[in-house]
Amino acid sequence: MTSTLQALIWDVDGTLAETERDGHRAAFNAAFAELGLPWRWSEARYGELLAVTGGKERILFYLENHRSQDPKPASNLNQFIAEMHRKKTDYYNHLLEENPIPLRPGIKRLLLEARQHHLQLAIATTTNLINVETLLKHSLSPTAIQWFSVISAGDIVSAKKPAPDIYFHALQALNLSPANCIAFEDSYNGLQAALGAQLPTLITVNDYTRHEDFTGALLVLDHLGEPDHPCQKLAGPTPLNSNCVEVNLLRSLLPQ
Ligand code: XBP
Ligand code: MG
Q1: Fold of 20-98
Q2: Whole-model pTM?
């Protein structure tokens, strides 16, 4: 069966930009400080906590596993976490507006090329919609949100990655079969989510994820590359005859 490439589906955190260490982590710590909590997530601790996807889920996990001796919040626990997470989201958006986090190598180039080829662009992310909009607006272009025909984000599904639900949501909105799409991810949890939805998946690793197991990925790279900043292949059957990932390479990765 011939599969025609029709859409690229993008994870956000760690894939479009390195938002975790100096973005989300910094915002969590600022929210903890504002609430007078002695919690601080170091770079290393945050790396461990990334195993739990979703900010509210990550806070709950930390509370239950690292702060179980702390006095319990007077109010309802879910409300307490939701309020903390709202503060974190405010800090995060402020940070993205004031000090935009650059997109990773090759992201803007490939998005632009995909648009020229009339491929659809979609997002499937654990983080919430406002965070995606702010990142795209300040790190890509003020109108970049309109480049994406589908944005599946955050609590729109009840089971976050590694569950495939967010990818099912995006595929349904695109009205496409997974065989006609490629997902872009940076983490084990993200890869499991995409593979669970039968999506061919390309991985670009980062410092938090390069040690993870990416069995099942089409290709594992350090980044998507630029003509003057070549990408390196870390795993995958296809010889890379180019300095960077282009639409023709993506087409060749799909089963013919
Ligand atoms: C990203 C996440 C997110 C962010 C925080 O996973 O796990 O939780 O760290 O976002 P992925 P929120 O890249 O696989 O989508 O605080 O908005 O939940
Ligand atoms: Mg990610």
Answers
A1: DNA polymerase; domain 1 (1.10.150)
A2: 0.96
